[in-house]
Amino acid sequence: MPSPPAAVAACRLAARRLLGELPEGRVLVGCSGGTDSLALASVVAFEVDKTGRPAGAVVVDHGLQDGSAGVADRAAAQCRGLGLDPVVVRRVEVPREHPGGPEDAARDARHAALVAEAERLEAVAVLLAHTRDDQAEQVLLGLARGSGARSLAGMPRRRGLLARPFLAVTRADTAAVCAHDGLDPWQDPHNADPAYARVRARGAMTVLEEALGPGIRDALARSADRLRADADALDQLAATWLAQQAEVPTSLPAHALASQPEAVRTRVLRLAALAAGAPSGALTAAHVLATDRLLTHWRGQGPVSLPGHLVAARTPGRAGRIMIGPADRVE
Q1: With contact defined as beta carbons under 8 Å apart, do 254 and 245 qualify?
Q2: Predicted model pTM
């Protein structure tokens, strides 16, 4: 039998490596029926056929386009044809209002459905088909928004039940898999709609490649890898400080926290706000920096408004504390 093309071999190797890192048990592929996820379904089916690991798929129907149910059923049929079992179609309701906009709303609804199915089926992971191109575009969007290190670190290879084996391969590679394996991917019209930030980022990436050379995607993806290691270390320092210095995560010793480096201090404040109930998608860097001024520029000012009907306030004196909670409970 002839060897597969290099792109196909690269995708199979990427899936094999990640599968080898996971504990024994069922894996699920999150499949939309598009090129990337259908390629992932195909290479996972190929790899698990050699090992006997159980593997299924979950197709999420967001209901955002006419005919979405038919698209989901077609994707499910192709997954079944590849030998994945079980294959589940989940319809989700995407909220009209979301702090991050419609793209974030759809992603959050999709991820919640995928995790719920993984837990129901006792799967050890859900595999997502984000590629190196997606990673580079994610970093570019973060740069455009003036984001911090965590956002610029892009998408992690693994977090919780979600895993991304294709972050080292390209869209061209996944297209080669579909062509090689005789698959017929769905072309999402949203991928050409400039109303979506990710589509505009894709167009900007093309311009950057023309101006700076074709290596820009790889460079951005490498930057994400390096920043992720830094962000992980800073997050751990912040979590350790919070556990050691605050008996209650929403009541922080102001003087001790003010002595910490800004990178740690602001992370502690973000963790405290999340512990108080602030929605993560709505809690911005501006909210955290405004709270930080209660430490670095304390002049007796009033409380800072935070998402989720919360406030952050400082009690006076050297023994003062940063208190975060509902406005009627924080003095």
Answers
A1: no
A2: 0.83
